[in-house]
């Protein structure tokens, strides 16, 4: 497990997200992915290779495994356009029954905040993708487009919810 120096707003290590930061819109949802250790291990590798993002309409460069400290070039695909989303991977979590990563936005991103993608293998053998995010309007011109960005968040969360299903 790789850890960041600052506490993460989305509390990826906590099974219950109790302390939500003021001044942000907070979101949390769990989506059933499948059952069993084999499913968990396979989906965890997909998650840790950005497939939750790429299967949902994003390009990631460089391709490869998610690493703490990484500053990937994330671009959302909008038809022929590729809109950059500057980001920084804050933490990668890899325990027996919890795998995933958290990234934060950088200036130039449409929102300001943090997002965690967590895959959990429960004692009853069910596997869930947990999404947690905190966000508020991005800086500069993005403040004007906040209503459109909020709609886009709903659309992409739906895509994330289906990206790793078996």
UniProtKB/TrEMBL annotation:
<dbReference type="Pfam" id="PF09348">
    <property type="entry name" value="DUF1990"/>
</dbReference>
<dbReference type="InterPro" id="IPR014457">
    <property type="entry name" value="UCP010260"/>
</dbReference>
<protein>
    <submittedName>
        <fullName>DUF1990 domain-containing protein</fullName>
    </submittedName>
</protein>
<feature type="domain" description="DUF1990">
    <location>
        <begin position="19"/>
        <end position="163"/>
    </location>
</feature>
<dbReference type="InterPro" id="IPR018960">
    <property type="entry name" value="DUF1990"/>
</dbReference>
